[in-house]
Design brief:
- The structure holds 2 protein chains of 2 kinds.
- Chain A contains 15 helices and 24 strands.
- By secondary structure, chain A is α/β, with parallel strands linked by helices.
- The relative contact order of chain A is 0.09.
- By secondary structure, chain B is α/β, with parallel strands linked by helices.
- In chain B, helix 15 runs antiparallel to helix 16.
- The longest helix of chain B has 19 residues.
- Chain B starts with 19 loop residues before the first helix and ends in an 18-residue tail after the last helix.
- The chains are: A alpha/beta, B alpha/beta.
- At the A-B interface, helix 2 of A face helix 15, helix 16 and helix 17 of B.
């Protein structure tokens, strides 16, 4: 591991680290436009020019400078300040400066760096070069070539990530602009990322354009529930309204990307399909009445509890305990497949054919119980009336199995589906962005969801809803703080041993390989 | 010193010099026979010892460049490429066209020897887009050489194989820059690549690649024939050999001349170029193609035609040998504006200072020409040039900045005169966008 010096501060960095990353490790931000950690180095914006003190010749760009022993750079010299100011001046020279009507305002590198490094008076006596504006280049993206700084991040994204290569540089000199060949449009499932990686307002997301100034938005770290990949996202919301999902970098899962269908799932938050209030036999009810109805009707029945492949580990854990400790003789099921109506898509990059967020987690929890089974077993049990009542957690159990509803169905979840429609009692739960929790993705990575906006309507956090059922059925299952539920689960499950919310942090942890129950990172299917 | 030494242009005057028969009758391909009996490393050493410097403009020692090719054990099975840079696009430079037109076999022979020295089996000649007739002639010469067993498989029974392909560019100045040339050759947009890695380590298709100018490669057969010492009989200690100069401007006999390096610039102008037109006096010289700093008449009269003297006396560079002479009728503001018009049109648009700055400099100069200017424009101009120089991916930024810096330093009074005129003129027009740069596509 080479040791480098940044502004006199020594730091040991991994082999192959460039000086932008190395400087970040000592808290020194080197401004940059074209460099992106998940793309190749282009070195064209020249914003990261730094002085080389020892071990090279300067000035040079930090992004293309690999750490090596003896290298010492400075970012605090007069020359560096002057270079940054000059690059800012050049970049803004033909920029339209239309911040008041630009959606990038507030998250624009031109604005940020101008305040930090520019602050110059205009010397421009000549007319600006004008370029094409408001070009509809794809289903999700609008291009404004005038705002572009030609950093080519979007070009490299198309070349290196999606491999579709639609965007190119056209023309030369200060007429250089991003564009596409005639008749082409963006042709991939990852378009939204183009707007994310664009450091300026050249590429904007059609869906988010003119919806909200970004400085009003709060962000919560979460995980996409669109498929088993578990891409890390930031949920951007104001009050109880969610405005967008943004990818959150996790080199072990999704790099810096998410797919478009995952990105658009933010709309489910306020969709008409959200379950807003408890219902009993189709009529709006209150929590106490609905809970009482559920518990009374379940009493004495042969019960099946369907764990949720879209529910968190905590919800599944409490649901399992509810089944085992409060609903005597209940069988536990985890259903294969996707809910009816789920997209059928998959690719090599991020999109998984399994459209559940937490199948691994549900199966892991189920495996802790001796009385668990899959969909076929449930189907035959229902047909033979061995199961008279179902408690369903989030999944569309009836839709997946393609069966008629048994005499009693209690549904807990946030989205309406055929099971919730057939359910006698519906208990509305918070969505996965409205409550904390953990999920396990297809690769066996345990990832943390944090609380974003408040639950809509009368929805309650999942663990609380389940515990209220337990309270009426014989007593609380313990704390309903999600972190406490997780820790009690981690204590009883060796695959999670030692994990806490704090330890999971923003990037998650792989399932413990030392576990004897779970030799494989992906849990084994539950015994039939 | 004899002002004319014919090494490269030896058979240019012979009828049919571009044909294999004439070339062989004049001794071509004898060096190749000799070279193929030598060890590749011996050839590189001989070229290194000859002091042959890259004739494309940078003047980097050719033998040293070849020695940067990693050994076979470090290449991981990757092939080595030799690329001849025949993009010759520097304004004022047209010597490579003469080399290829008059004596393509000397280039081919030089390329075979160079390829043998660096263990290359596929070589390319990248010609600028306008050189279509030259390409036809070079292609014909390659075919002749192939038919005679001088190219292709098992050259002259030595077991060495080499194919040479020609490739025509699409007319961009920047493709004369070696990494942009490689991008273009690969079929990509012609723009320079980041260095490091240098082409000798990772060049065409990410394989080790040597890019040499036409004139550089054409000099190789002579060095093999006469040895390093023979080549060093011409020129100076630091700048050995002969050099082709493309002479243009206010001289009586414009043309390409081969002279030994180190002759005086005075002789160059007065004797080789036939002097200035009657009644004119020398004002300035651009000694190495449009990118290098301009020299004043006084500097020119004290400089010699070699790499070191031009740098020491004139603060300029020998460059590609595009020797542009300007007499006292030259309007230096207009001359600089004309140069910048070229650069503002040719910047590849990749990196910020050059993309935005060169067009800006041109527009300021246009206003100077139009008399819509103040003294602060000169400061802006110089500041822009300083902010572009050395801060770009390739040398283009410096190439556009150096003329501005040197014209302003050496002929500032002419620029000031424009500003004074503008200040006294009541009817100074408002700035109006016009010219090729503001009409959409450049």
């Amino acid at each position: 591991m080479p040791t480098v010096k940044i502004n006199g501060v020594e730091v040991e960095v991994p082999e192959g680290t460039n000086m932008i990353e190395a400087a970040a490790m000592v808290g020194e931000e080197i401004p940059h436009y074209c460099y992106h950690a998940d793309l190749t180095v282009a070195g064209n914006c020249r914003m990261c020019l730094i002085d080389v003190e020892e071990g090279g010749r300067g000035p040079d760009i930090a992004c293309n400078m690999q750490a090596r022993d003896g290298l010492a750079i400075r970012t605090d010299t007069e020359q560096v300040k002057q270079m940054r100011k000059s690059v800012m001046e050049m970049l803004l020279k033909n920029h339209p400066l239309d911040c008041p009507i630009c959606d990038q305002s507030g998250e624009c590198r031109l604005q940020d760096y101008y305040m930090d490094h520019g602050q110059h008076d205009s010397r421009l006596a000549d007319p600006k070069v004008t370029k094409r504006k408001r070009m509809d280049i794809g289903d999700h993206i609008v291009l404004d070539a005038e705002r572009c700084v030609a950093c080519t991040r979007c070009v490299r994204f198309g070349d290196e990530v999606t491999g579709t290569g639609e965007l190119r540089l056209f023309q030369r000199t200060d007429h250089t602009e991003i564009g596409m060949f005639p008749g082409e449009r963006l042709n991939h499932e990852y378009q939204g990322n183009l707007a994310d990686i664009c450091p300026v307002g050249a590429l904007t997301n059609k869906d988010f354009r003119f919806e909200k100034r970004v400085w009003y938005l709060k962000e919560a770290n979460s995980v996409c529930d669109g498929c088993a990949t578990g891409c890390n996202i930031s949920v951007c919301y104001q009050g109880s309204e969610v405005f967008r999902y943004m990818p959150r970098r996790n080199p072990d899962v999704n790099a810096s990307w998410i797919c478009d269908s995952g990105r658009m799932r933010y709309k489910r938050h306020a969709a008409s399909t959200r379950l807003l209030a408890p219902r009993v036999d189709g009529s709006r009810s209150s929590w106490p009445d609905a809970l009482a109805a559920a518990v009374e009707r379940l009493a004495g029945k042969k019960i099946g509890v369907v764990l949720g492949t879209q529910a968190t580990l905590e919800e599944n854990h409490l649901a399992r305990r509810l089944a085992e400790e409060r609903l005597a003789g209940a069988m536990i099921f985890v259903l294969e497949g996707n809910d009816p109506g789920a997209e059928e898509s998959s690719d090599e990059l991020l999109i998984d054919a399994d459209k559940t967020m937490n199948r691994c987690g549900a199966e892991l929890v189920a495996s802790m119980s001796s009385a668990t089974a899959g969909g076929e077993a449930l189907k035959s049990a229902l047909a033979a009336s061995e199961i008279e009542a179902l408690v369903v957690l989030r999944d569309d159990a009836l839709g997946r199995l393609g069966v008629e509803a048994p005499p009693l169905v209690v549904f807990l979840g946030d989205q309406a589906n055929s099971t919730s429609k057939a359910a006698n009692v519906v208990l509305p739960m918070a969505s996965h962005v409205e409550q904390p929790g953990t999920t396990i993705n297809r690769g066996g990575r345990v990832q943390l969801l944090t609380r974003g906006p408040l639950p809509v309507g009368d929805a309650l956090p999942g663990v609380e809803a389940i515990d209220r059922m337990a309270q009426l059925s014989g007593g609380s299952l313990g704390s309903t703080e999600e972190w406490a539920v997780f820790e009690s689960l981690a204590q009883s499950c060796s695959a999670l041993s030692g994990m806490t919310y704090g330890a999971l942090g923003g990037q998650g942890l792989p399932l413990s390989l030392a576990s004897s129950e779970q030799p494989d990172p992906a849990p084994a299917p539950p015994a039939k | 010193m004899d002002l004319h030494q014919k090494v490269l242009s030896r058979i240019w005057d012979v009828d049919g010099s571009h044909t294999l028969d004439v070339a062989r009758a004049n001794g071509h391909y004898q060096s190749l026979e000799k070279a193929l009996k030598m060890q590749p490393a011996e050839i590189t050493e001989e070229v290194t010892n000859s002091g042959l410097r890259g004739r494309g403009g940078a003047g980097f020692p050719a033998g040293r460049k070849w020695s940067f090719i990693p050994g076979p054990e470090k290449r991981g099975g990757k092939p080595v490429y030799l690329v001849c840079n025949a993009d010759e696009s520097e304004p004022g430079t047209y010597k490579d066209r003469f080399c290829m037109w008059n004596d393509p076999h000397m280039l081919i022979e030089g390329m075979i020897i160079a390829a043998y020295a660096i263990d290359c089996h596929v070589a390319y000649i990248y010609l600028r887009g306008e050189f279509r007739p030259v390409q036809a002639r070079v292609d014909a010469a390659i075919e002749e050489a192939k038919a005679a067993g001088l190219l292709g498989k098992n050259i002259l029974g030595s077991g060495f194989d080499l194919e040479i392909h020609t490739h025509l560019g699409a007319g961009a100045y920047i493709c004369g820059e070696e990494t942009a040339l490689l991008s273009s050759l690969e079929g990509e947009r012609g723009q320079p690549k980041l260095k490091p890695p240098f082409p000798a380590v990772e060049g065409a298709w990410r394989c080790p690649t040597i890019v040499n100018n036409v004139e550089t490669l054409s000099a190789v057969p002579y060095i093999i024939e006469k040895g390093a010492a023979g080549y060093r009989e011409f020129g100076t200690e630091q700048s050995p050999g002969t050099k082709l100069f493309s002479c243009s401007g206010h001289i009586n006999n414009p043309g390409v001349y081969e002279v030994p390096l180190g002759i005086t610039m005075k002789d160059m102008i007065e004797k080789v170029c036939g002097g200035l037109p009657e009644g004119r006096t020398l004002k300035a010289v651009i000694p190495g193609g449009s990118s290098v700093p301009v020299m004043t008449a006084e500097e020119a009269m004290n400089a010699n035609m070699d790499y070191e003297s031009i740098q020491e006396v004139g603060g300029s560079y020998l460059g590609s040998g595009g020797f542009i002479v300007m007499d006292d009728t030259t309007d230096m503001v207009a001359a600089l504006t004309n140069l910048l018009r070229f650069y503002a049109h040719e910047s590849c648009g990749q990196c910020t200072p050059c993309r935005e700055g060169v067009g800006w400099m041109y527009r300021v100069l246009q206003r100077l020409c139009d008399g819509v200017c103040t003294e602060s424009d000169l400061e802006t101009l110089l500041d822009l040039a300083n902010n572009i120089h050395s801060r770009t991916i390739c040398f283009f930024g410096a190439s556009a900045a150096m003329p501005v810096q040197s014209f302003l330093a050496k002929f500032r009074d002419e620029f000031m005169a424009r500003i004074d005129e503008a200040a006294t003129s009541l009817a100074a027009p408002l700035p109006v966008p016009e010219g090729v740069l503001d009409q959409g596509a450049p």
